[in-house]
Design brief:
The structure is a homodimer of 225-residue chains. The first copy, chain A, is an alpha/beta fold. Helix content of chain A is 52%, strand content 12%. The first copy, chain A, is built from 10 helices and 6 strands, in the order E-H-H-H-H-H-E-H-E-H-H-E-H-E-H-E. The mean pLDDT of chain A is 94.
Chain lengths: 225, 225
């Protein structure tokens, strides 16, 4: 029995791109409704706040209005949040080839699971909204383990939960250090996808780790699995 | 200058009814997707959890699955939450006559504000989704004041925020003790709407408080203001 572990964000789903578009629309609406900044000023400020507090923090718009007005503006916060979520959920879908690849892996007899840095219910929510959760036997999140990837314990716990030996498993993700190197250090195989690394960076990785597969698009997984 | 203060839930919006329908659909979906209870068992359990933790608690489905399985089931929690919110926001609208009444009051020169027991951003969210927030100069919530209605301080703080004397203001709400008596105790006028009290209960109130107006439907406000 072999198990393929996937990262979610920017591996199965184009999360960063949807989030970026949703943030742009939310800022636009907030500026139109009284936030006294230009779009560029407000968007830059929001990105600074996200960089400072992390993307899983759920009070970005609270901090934004507090920074601008000296105290929170609940109307603008509500408007920003509603707009952000409506746009994000309207856009949320898997990368075009994700479903084909998941179906291919199931027909080949692989078991599938997810290892994700994030909040448990939020990550399930993404998969449930897209009906992707039927493909995966387990979702292991950093929130429930109490440790983020690339900590080896999250990978070890995932292997235990799936009752599989590391050498019979592969970690697929878009971040080299967090996903792939994390998995490799736990004894798993590693496939890097959507990494957006330069040719030189990829060459360097191949020199150091000759067993890591690097692909541009998730559709290429079928050539290796 | 006269100010009319409104409660939101079950006064401007049919909140309890929408929430009930949304909970029914959510429980239905959870049972269909593996919650090992009948609909009636699960719905009864959910209502017990809501009674215990209050309707503003945001982990009802977490507690529900933990009670049933001994630990949380994140897939069912996510499914329940998505369904609940989708249905609730699909149904959310003001009582049929709410807009007519708000427009009437504005044309009569009244200033309008909200005094609500609830979370600040969640209450703004309801008004913003319905574009009702344009009618109101201020929303005062129990969360920001740190005290729930009928505590006199929340009414006093609302009067300060609107810069109006109590005798020039009226509190409109669906709960006699919480909204109307609370307002009366702060020196405001009081109008009870949608109370669903029996004729005897209403008679009793009229005997004790001869200045309280009691109406069935928000549309009758126009007869008094």
């Amino acid at each position: 029995m072999k198990v393929v572990f996937f990262d979610i964000d920017d591996t199965l789903l184009d999360t960063s791109n949807f989030a970026k578009l949703a943030r742009e629309v939310a800022i636009n609406i907030m500026v139109e409704n009284g936030l006294p900044l230009t779009f560029d000023e407000a968007y830059t400020l929001l990105n600074e706040i996200i960089a400072q507090h992390g993307s899983n923090y759920d009070q970005h718009f609270n901090v934004l209005t507090k920074t601008v007005f000296g105290k929170e503006n609940p109307m603008l916060i509500a408007l920003g949040m509603i707009t952000y979520h409506n746009v994000k959920f309207a856009l949320l879908r898997p990368f075009p080839k994700t479903l084909d690849v998941l179906i291919h892996l199931k027909t080949k007899g692989y078991k599938l699971a997810v290892i994700s840095n994030g909040k448990t219910i939020k990550q399930w929510e993404k998969l449930v909204r897209l009906n992707l959760h039927h493909f995966f036997d387990e979702i292991i999140t950093s929130q429930e383990v109490g440790l983020d990837k690339p900590n080896i314990r999250i990978f070890e716990q995932a292997l235990e939960r799936m009752n599989v030996k590391a050498e019979n498993s592969i970690m697929v993700g878009n971040k080299f250090d967090v996903d792939v190197l994390g998995g490799i250090n736990a004894g798993m195989g590693g496939i890097l996808v959507n990494s957006k690394l330069s040719k030189e960076e990829i060459k360097k990785i191949h020199l150091e780790y000759d067993d890591i597969v690097i692909i541009d698009n998730i559709s290429e997984l079928v050539d290796y699995l």
